[in-house]
Design goal:
- With about 325 residues, this protein is an alpha/beta fold.
- It is built from 10 helices and 16 strands.
- It has a 10-stranded mixed β-sheet with strand order 7-6-3-10-11-12-13-14-15-16, sandwiched between helices. It has a 4-stranded mixed β-sheet with strand order 5-4-8-9. It has a two-stranded antiparallel sheet with strand order 1-2.
- A hairpin with a 5-residue loop joins strand 8 and strand 9.
- The longest helix has 17 residues.
- The radius of gyration is 18 Å and the shape is globular.
- About 45% of the residues are buried.
């Protein structure tokens, strides 16, 4: 596969853009203990982070979810639309928008609490994504987080992936493992079920070892993931860069050297950069280059998505090392 124009032998020339589905949470960040009341309010979520990053890079993107009929739901919907993302989110009077509270503690430590077990997004259903939407997009991006928040959301992810493939769209899946949400055995079973429905899989090397605990080498991990179905397997290596295995071989990319402010959202930025170039038909080395650049920008400010770059931001000298074999 050389670009979004090719998918399992089918041509996507009449398609464009990305659809992603998953939970976004309200976010309360404190500079110190919560009772000191030095707080910042925002939001974040893997799929909405990817959606914003894609939109800033010029890619049409639709985000599908469910939100509470509450101020956090209002904030999320408003800000995503302001970023150019098409929002398709049913609003619920009965179920709240999920919430994350992050307390920045002394000595650089943070304490994070989630309030999401009965959130509106846990009721995400496959029917929330329509056949018409699937017929119009080139890529459907899903994550392991959504498969973990509830049994219903997990079923929705599988349903959306199956229907996306039948509709001719590529399926992108980021393991994005969250240990607080479920145990490794249940996660591994779910990921093994999803990968045969996936064209492009993203995983950190630690996440890939949930499936293959005896494999250390990132290239071997990518090969093992690809053996379960995906035609492209991308390993995110953080400060060590990234690696992608495709039919054309193994491609490696060094990370961009930065002094990070906040690494939350870096992986989502990487995915957005990679998918953006995939949609443009760019070769794998270019996808990795843009992915690492976007991921680096995501680390340059506080928040999940606020520092995601535009295309113009990426027009800087290229200093990353690229090795293909």
């Amino acid at each position: 596969m050389t670009g979004a124009g090719t998918a399992r032998g089918g041509v996507l020339t009449a398609r464009g853009g990305v659809l992603t589905a998953g939970e976004s949470l309200g976010l309360v960040v404190t500079d110190g203990p919560l009772h000191e009341q030095r707080t910042r309010v925002g939001f974040g979520g893997a799929e909405s982070n990817v959606a914003i990053a894609l939109s800033r890079l010029g890619v049409p993107v639709t985000w599908v979810s469910r939100l509470g009929q509450d101020p956090f739901g209002d904030l999320i919907a408003r800000e995503l639309r302001a970023e150019g993302v098409a929002v398709r989110a049913e609003r619920s009077d009965a179920d709240p928008t999920g919430l994350m509270v992050k307390e920045r503690r002394p000595m650089g430590r943070s304490r994070v609490r989630y309030y999401r077990s009965t959130s509106a997004a846990t009721r995400l259903a496959g029917a929330d994504v329509t056949a018409e939407q699937l017929a119009q997009v080139a890529v459907v991006h899903l994550t392991g987080i959504t498969t973990a928040i509830s049994a219903g959301a997990r079923s929705a992810v599988f349903d959306i992936a199956r229907r996306a493939r039948r509709a001719g769209a590529l399926v992108s899946f980021d393991l994005n493992h969250r240990a607080r949400l479920w145990d490794r055995a249940q996660a591994a079973e779910t990921y093994r079920g999803m990968l045969p429905l996936t064209d492009v899989v993203f995983a950190g090397d630690d996440e890939a070892r949930i499936l293959f605990p005896d494999i250390e080498d990132p290239a071997e991990l990518a090969a093992a993931l690809g053996g379960l179905g995906p035609t492209e397997a991308v390993i995110k290596l953080g400060e060590r860069g990234a690696l992608a295995r495709t039919a054309g071989g193994v491609h490696r990319r060094a990370a961009v050297a930065i002094d990070p402010v906040d690494t939350v959202g870096a992986g989502d930025g990487f995915v957005a950069g990679y998918l953006c170039e995939l949609l443009a038909g760019a070769p794998v080395p270019v996808r990795l280059r843009t992915g690492t650049q976007v991921g680096a920008y995501a680390c340059l400010g506080a928040g999940d998505w606020e520092s995601m770059p535009t295309r113009a931001d990426l027009l800087v000298p290229d200093t990353g090392d690229l090795v293909d074999r």
